[in-house]
Amino acid sequence: MLRRINSTVVLRTLRGSATSSPLTLTELVHATELSRPTVEGVVEGLIESGLVAEAEDEPAHIRGSARRGRPARRFRFRAEAGHLLGVEIGPHRVAAVLSDLTGRITGSVAREVQETATAEERLDRARGTVAELLRRTDVARDALRAVGVGTPGIVEADGTVRLGTALPGWTGLPLGERLRRSFRCPVLVENDANAGVLAEHWKGAARGVDDVVMVLAGLSPGAGSLIGGRLHRGFGGAAGEIGALHLLGREATPERLLSTTDEPLHPLDEAAVARVFAQAKGGDERARRAMDRFVARLVHDVAALVLALDPELLVVGGWASGLDGVLDPLRGELERYCLRPPRVALSLLGDTAVATGALRLALDHVEGELFTVETAAAV
Fold first, then answer.
1. Which single residue of 21, 28, 37, 215 has CA 20 to 30 Å from 281?
2. Cβ distance 337 to 301 under 8 Å?
3. How many CB atoms lie within 10 A of CB 6?
């Protein structure tokens, strides 16, 4: 157990230097506060495991002509020793993004899918998208160390979709089990809005903010929340399902509120939302009224979360284009309804947020296995 803990400490130190320069044994001894014999033994073991490699010697013009003799051995974390995969399975698209073990993205592929596609058709499209990405990047499937998946619905711990009204045939689908048949590594399934808030916290508008709500605005809005930097799923994974608030005595659904005719929009037709937003921007009066109704409903839904959680930041994202036009009305209305209105920002990641957040799930899993002393002590 002690050797495992020491290996974790050394590996974490080397991984932290992955974006700078390799470290010598002396530098590792100082950084880890372990004895030199211990560090030497640990490094050799990590080299055998493939996670660490000896770095190439620096050219003489970089070392400096004053230094003579054989240069000290330097070691680096092998970020290329494995790969991580993030997958979005949504109403209109399937996307996959690949990274090395530091989270550096090395490739991505996105493909459209019909909102009316069956569960089997959607899963086939997901498998095909992943296969295309691995083929393009020349990465073997066995090199994957973890896979994260983001999808609409209430997702249980084992990856089963307990309730998923946004996708046909999704309710009750053992998604995690089905996807694990395609991989030899852990597969982690998460709600799409939860994945989105993780992505914005990692690479987007919420960097450096630990209390944040992200809303995926659309015909069936959902929200993901970080409280103190930790994802808040709720007891049964249903936290943030604000798309169900219309059931509380408000019969007008979002697809009816956004309609510019007497007929409601199709409940899965997010492209229609984009068209209404574009028409409102162009001066269409009926579209402007429909957008005003939608924003008013969105404000009421979001205000419930803001009042309960008091986030520092509210990030607005989703599949509907033209969301920038929602921000100012949203800010104004939140100031009316909330005791302390949060800052409001547009997602910086756009339609890549869910897949990026799914990748973050995979990265968190691997970091927990490789770089966390508590995990090493439990083994």
1. 215
2. no
3. 20
